[in-house]
Write a structure and sequence with these properties.
alpha/beta, serine acetyltransferase, domain 1, UDP N-Acetylglucosamine Acyltransferase, domain 1, 2 domains, 5-stranded parallel sheet, 7 helices, globular
Length: 276
């Protein structure tokens, strides 16, 4: 027993001391995700720095986190980091479009600054676009760490491999799930509890499109569930709350969940006060 425990300790220590460990430190990855967000929106930062200074710091931090993840791969860390920051201005413009979409379509929003500062849906979209950029550049694992960090903060789970178009709007947001192979067009609005998921979870289907396609100008209301890689919601469609959809619908469709209400009058035949 003693020898077995000692071997166990050694195994744990070897993982801790491995200079080429493939899991980025969570605290550092989370700090980098926040740092990039505040770099894009410095009015939210408690310690704003000049943009060029912040860029230099963030580039160094990104390279430090990517280096152990890219051991043995041909792509130099500096190339991914430089490509990331070269494409970040285009990502920033997309995010301004997202913020403007939320401002235009949410009656409760009073200004774009409010959207950027307080809306969890916008925060989740911003993190997704940053993580998606890293994913497309071939950065391993780090985009998923970013995604799960913001998932924990906002309750919105967007896989960094998903494809999402312009002027994306998530309102309220808690419970939204968007799978890795989901494709979302432009000007799409999603409310809380929406799931864009898979019909099959077999590991052999990892490289197959498993999640639905939502075309331009669609609205998916609260708690609607749309499943399957072959499921397409045609453009300009509305999916009502609590709907369950596993088949494609044509453009301009309206899909509603039909619920029934049973109205009873006193006296009740069964007790109405009970504990589960």
């Amino acid at each position: 027993m003693k020898n077995s425990l000692e071997q166990f300790f050694q195994k744990l220590d070897s993982q801790h001391m491995d200079p080429h460990q493939r899991i980025p430190p969570r605290a550092e990855a989370h700090a980098l995700a926040d740092g990039i967000f505040y770099f894009l929106f410095p009015m939210l930062s408690e310690e704003p720095k000049p943009a060029r200074v912040q860029y230099t710091l963030l580039r160094h931090e990104l390279m430090s986190l990517l280096y152990p993840l890219l051991q043995g791969k041909n792509e130099p860390v500096s190339v991914i980091a430089d490509n990331f920051f070269e494409q970040l201005p285009a990502t920033y413009e997309r995010l301004l479009e997202d913020a403007d979409a939320i401002m235009r379509f949410d009656p409760a929003a009073t200004c774009t600054e409010e959207v950027i500062a307080t809306y969890p849906g916008f925060h989740a979209i911003a993190n997704y676009r940053i993580a998606n950029l890293l994913h497309r550049l071939g950065a391993p694992l780090l985009p998923r760490v970013f995604a799960e960090y913001i998932h924990g903060k906002t309750g919105i789970d967007i896989h960094p491999a998903a494809t999402i178009g312009r002027s994306f709007f998530i309102d309220h947001g808690t419970g939204v799930v968007i799978g890795a192979t989901a494709v979302i067009g432009d000007n799409v609005k999603i409310y809380q509890g929406v799931t864009l998921g898979a019909l099959q979870v077999d590991k052999s289907l990892a490289n197959v499109k498993r999640h639905p396609t939502i075309e331009d100008n669609c609205i998916l209301y609260a708690n609607s569930t749309i499943l399957g890689g072959k499921t397409i919601v045609g453009h300009d469609s509305v999916i009502g709350g609590n709907s369950w959809l596993t088949e494609s619908v044509a453009p301009y469709s309206v899909v509603v969940h039909q619920s029934t209400a049973k109205v009873r009058t006193r006296p009740f035949d069964e007790p109405v006060n009970f504990v589960i």
